[in-house]
Amino acid sequence: MNKMKRVLVLLVMSLGLMSSCANAQQGEGYQLLKADAFLKLVEETTDELLLDVRTPAEFNQGNIEGAINLDYYADDFRQKLEAMDKTKPVFIYCASGGRSHNAIALLQELGFGEIYELKGGYRALGH
Question: If you ran DSSP here, which 8-state letter would residue 67 be given?
Answer without folding.
Answer: P
